[in-house]
Amino acid sequence: MIFELTEEQRMIRDAARDFAQQELKPGVIERDEKQQFPTEQIKKLGELGFLGMMVDPKYNGAGLDTVSYVLVMEELSKIDASASVVVSVNNSLVCYGLEAYGTEEQKEKYLKPLAAGIQIGAFCLSETEAGSDATSQRTTAEDKGDYYLINGTKNWITNGSTASTYLVIAQTDARKKHHGINALIVEKGMAGFTIGPNENKLGIRGSDTHSLLFDDVRVPKTNRIGEDGFGFKFAMKTLEGGRIGIAAQALGIAAGAYELARDYAKERQTFGKPIANHQAIQFKLADMATQIEAARLLCLKAAWLKDHGQPYTQAAAMAKLYASEVAMRTTVEAVQIHGGYGYVKEYHVERLMRDAKITQIYEGTSEIQRMVIARELLHD
Ligand code: CAA
User: Fold this and answer.
1) Which of 7, 103, 169, 219 is most open to solvent, judged by the fewest CB atoms within 10 Å of its CB?
2) For ligand 1, is residue 368 a contact (CB within 6 Å)?
3) What tens digit of pLDDT does each residue of 212-230 get?
C-alpha cells in the first residue's frame, strides 16, 4: 500500500492552497456577512481548471483524477466553504453527470462551457417533500411527444441563480415510481422558468441557494439524460461522486479549524504559558488531528476506488458520514480553544463551525449515509 501522492497531485494541492490563501481568504468574512457570491474567485477557479477537474480535456476539462479533486476540495474548504461548494456541485454533480451519461450533442453544448468554467451548473433534485426521500418527486415532466412540460418547484438549489445549466429531476410517470423519473437539462431563460429569492442561511452564506419554479417549461426531448425513466438512477449514481466532494469539503472545514486552533494555542498565554502547554488543550488538539487524519484517509480511499473503476458507493457514504461529523466536532472544539475570540468573526472559526453543519445535511443527511452503508453491508 502506497500512501504517497504523485508529484502532479502535490503540485495541484499546493496550487489550491496558494489560491485559497491569496484569493479566497481576503474578503471571506465580508462575503459571509453580506451573503455575497464569490463571483471573481469562481471565475479565476474556472480559469485554473478547477471547475471541470475530472472532465476529459476533449470537453475542456483538466483530465485529473478524483484524488486530486479531494486535495483541492480540502484546501479550498479550509478557507472558504461557500466557494468550495460551487466547485463541488459543478465538478461532481453537473460535469460528471453530463460526461458519464450525456449524449455527444449534450456534451458539446452543455459540458464544454461548464468544464471550462465559463458557465456553472446546478443539480436540482430536492423538493419540500423529496429531500431524503428522493423517489417522492412532485415536480412533473409530462411527455408531450418531442418535448417535456415541466411543472413544480425545486428547493435549496446550490448555484440557483448563478447557474446557466440546470439538471432537473422530475416525475414523468408516477405509476412507475422511481422508474418513471427523468433527468432533464434546463437552460436559464427558458420560458416559464423562474428563480426564487436567495435563502438566508446559517452557513455557506456566500453560496447562492434558491427555490426554482417551473411553470409549463418546455424542454426538448433531446435534453433528456439517458433512457426514459433513467432519472432516479442518474441522481443516485451522480450523488455517489458528489458525496466524495462534500466529504472532502467537510474534511477541509475540519482541517482549517484545527490549523487555526493549533496556531492560536501556541500564541495565546494563560497562567504564564502558551495554552498549548496545558494538557487539556493538547488532548483536544490530539483528538482533532487524529479524527481529521482518519477522515482524510476515508476520502482518499473513496476517491482512489472511483479512479480505479471499483465500486465506491459505501466508501463515499462512509467518508461523508465520518468527515461531516468530524467537521462538526472539530469546529466546535476550535471555537472552544479560542475562547471568547472564537465567538467573534475576525478569528474565522465561528464561520467554519456554521459552515460545518451543512455537510451533515446536503447530498444526503448523516442518516441517509447510514442507510446507504447498511444497505451495502447487508445486501447479498
Ligand atoms: N446506484 C445505482 N442505483 C441505485 C443507487 C446507486 N447508488 N441507489 C439506489 N439505486 C437504485 C436501486 O437499485 C433501485 O433500483 P431498482 O428498483 O431498479 O432495483 C432504486 O434506485 C431505488 O432504490 P432504493 O429502494 O434503495 O431507494 P429508496 O427510496 O430506499 O432511497 C436513498 C434510497 C439512498 C435513501 C435515496 O433516496 C437517497 O440517496 N436520498 C438522498 C438524496 C440526496 O442525497 N439528496 C440531496 C440533494 S442534492 C444536493 O444536496 C446538492 C447540493 O445542493 C449540494
Assistant:
1) 7
2) yes
3) 999 999 999 999 999 999 9
